[in-house]
Amino acid sequence: MATALDLQIHEIDDWSCCGASSAHPTNHTLGIALPARNLALAAEQGADEVVAPCAACFNRLAAARHEIAADDTLAERMSSILQRDFKNDVAVRNVIDVLRQRAARIVELTAAAPEPKPLSQMRLAAYYGCLLVRPPEVTGFDDPEQPTAMEDVIEACGALPVRWNMAVECCGGGFSISRTASVVRLSRRIIRDARAHGADAIVVSCPLCHSNLDFRQAAMELRGEPPMPVFFITQIVGMAIGVPRDRLGLERHFVATDPVLADATAAAAAAAADAETKRAAKRSSAAQKARA
Amino acid sequence: MPRAESTSSSHTLVAEIERHTGIDVRACYQCGKCSAGCPMSSEMRHKPHDIMRLAQQDRRDELLDDESLWLCITCETCSARCPNACDPARVIDMLREQAAAAGRGPQQRAIRAFHDAFLQQVRGNGRIYEAGFMVSYKIRSGALIQDVANAPGMLARGKLHILPERVKDLEDVRRIFRACEEDAS
Ligand code: SF4
Ligand code: SF4
């Protein structure tokens, strides 16, 4: 997919964990130094930008970059803690941002992909959660209350983004192991709101949001709530541009994605057939007119 | 209600918070917008605006000994919405650091243990593998109803199938941990 979108992506050699939601509440400096190590490695390896698939990693990298840029003494301390000449000159971006920049290319590839196009019949709720949009001065990404970047990508894929209320609400991901009850409460209100606004599925960009919203539905299913599939934005783009579905990891989801895709595929095929009938009718009436 | 102590002293919470974070908690006018949007406030005894008020009044014990600090999930909603740039999320982070350093408060044992276990992994391997997988594993294995306090222990013992792949330059990561601990003390 990266190749189709003209992206050159390399894994940072010897990257280490950024400390996620555990380092900064315990030791603020550590919460900056761990992501800074990755930024330093990326710079040494010649990258101009780091793209983080996970919202938490993106946030920690962006926060480190932001805090170091704003504070000269911190920048000096980082160079000594990291024992590297750290220049803080690598940009930090998230996946949605990168995909939105390629929206025109996604539109082209989507148009060229084979019929039927199930996405054309799907209503999708774009879920950003916390860490992509907050704190706004750190992430520098979109409107923190009403972001639209993911909706732009969804539209480029030919699908219909729904308007809903929970796009930037917290799903409780950080507590998924330590305080499960809170997470079920938070995830449930997100899923219910998506359903109430007519979504066939939720779209996320972060693996933590995904596992939370997807796997938490086990508990909800027990209480008889209907399933709500959760896709990664990369899976949506992959499907749109014609990457074979068996290469998209869809079978690893907890909530099955097949039923919703089968329905949408059938609807897309019907819509395509309908359009074809109309075109044929138009052609024949035009032909009749020409004969007359 | 105790009155706010003089803030001229450098030992008040107001002064300490300002020194460590640059935030002036006195700018908070208790509008409650932070608490209104906080996803955890329904579970907190001291909601975000209460925490700001207690800090203004230098009621340190009530703050550091209460579990509310540990219920904040750092979603940053409060800070993004505060009309006075008071940044409650950062204030809470700093208060947690203080509570942890002083070994105070109930500290929400499972949450604290999770952070510790997580960092222990990072220190030991430089990486955590498949955090999402742990979550799914836990639910798939029916652990939803299991005593959550066990989870960090399982994590520390590697029972949650964290692949032991390591950073090559582990000493580099460990040195960063040591340097940051020195930096904090
Ligand atoms: S939103 Fe800001 S000003 Fe309002 S109560 Fe919260 S911290 Fe204080
Ligand atoms: S950062 Fe913490 S206090 Fe602020 S809204 Fe989120 S959970 Fe509530």
**Count of extended strands of chain B:** 0
Alpha-carbon Rg of chain A, integer: 22 Å
Find the count of extended strands of chain A (DSSP E, 2+ residues): 6
Assigned CATH architecture of the largest domain in chain A:
3-Layer(aba) Sandwich
Look at the structure and give the mean pLDDT of chain B. 76
Tell me what portion of residues of chain B adopts beta-strand conformation. Answer: under 5%
Please state the average pLDDT score of chain A: 86
Radius of gyration of chain B: 19 Å
Ends distance of chain B: 34 Å
Task: Describe it.
The complex is a heterodimer of chains A (292) and B (185). The longest helix of chain A has 34 residues. Chain A has two domains: 73 residues, no CATH class; 158 residues, Rossmann fold (3-Layer(aba) Sandwich), CATH 3.40.50. With 292 residues, chain A is an alpha/beta fold. In chain A, helix 1 packs across helix 2 and helix 2 packs across helix 3. Chain B has eleven helices and no strands. Helix content of chain B is 54%, strand content 0%. Chain B has 185 residues and is mainly α. The two termini of chain B are 34 Å apart. Chain B has two domains: 93 residues, Alpha-helical ferredoxin (Fumarate Reductase Iron-sulfur Protein, Chain B, domain 2, Orthogonal Bundle); 76 residues, no CATH class. Bound molecules: iron/sulfur cluster (2 copies). The site of one iron/sulfur cluster has 15 residues of chain B, from helix 2 and helix 3.
Task: Offer a few descriptive terms.
heterodimer; A: 292 residues; alpha/beta; two-stranded parallel sheet; globular; B: 185 residues; mainly alpha; 11 helices; binds iron/sulfur cluster
Outline the fold blueprint.
The complex is a heterodimer of chains A (292) and B (185).
Chain A: H1 20-26, H2 28-44, E1 49-52, H3 55-70, H4 72-82, E2 91-94, H5 95-101, H6 103-112, E3 123-126, H7 136-139, H8 149-156, E4 160-161, H9 180-196, E5 201-204, H10 207-215, H11 217-222, E6 230-232, H12 233-240, H13 258-291
Parallel strand pairs in A: 1-2, 3-4, 3-5, 5-6
Helix pairs in contact in A: 1-2, 2-3, 3-4, 5-8
Chain B: H1 13-21, H2 33-37, H3 48-56, H4 60-64, H5 68-71, H6 77-81, H7 88-101, H8 109-125, H9 131-140, H10 150-156, H11 170-184
Bound molecules: iron/sulfur cluster (2 copies).
One iron/sulfur cluster (SF4) binds next to α6 and α7 of chain B.
